[in-house]
Amino acid sequence: MNSPITGNPNVVRSVVSNGTAPAEALERIYLATLSRRPTAAETKMLTEYLSKNGTTPTAYGDILWAVLNSSEFTLVR
Length: 77
Known about the structure:
Number of helices: 5
Helix content: 55-70%
Strand content: under 5%
Mean pLDDT: 85
Low-confidence stretches: none
Number of strands: 0
Radius of gyration: 12 Å
């Protein structure tokens, strides 16, 4: 959790490139971290978050950080 990788915006950029649709970006984050696609409820919640905060690397980084801190990540990985 304290790895330099988790706070590195280049990691987010490697998963989510410019021009990537939010739904596709969320799918990539989930596949890279949890090896599954987000549920419809997760996609809806996170799409709402992105609509309020923008589709910036910082916003996607926040989502990545939340997924990495989830109990599912801890138990699956």
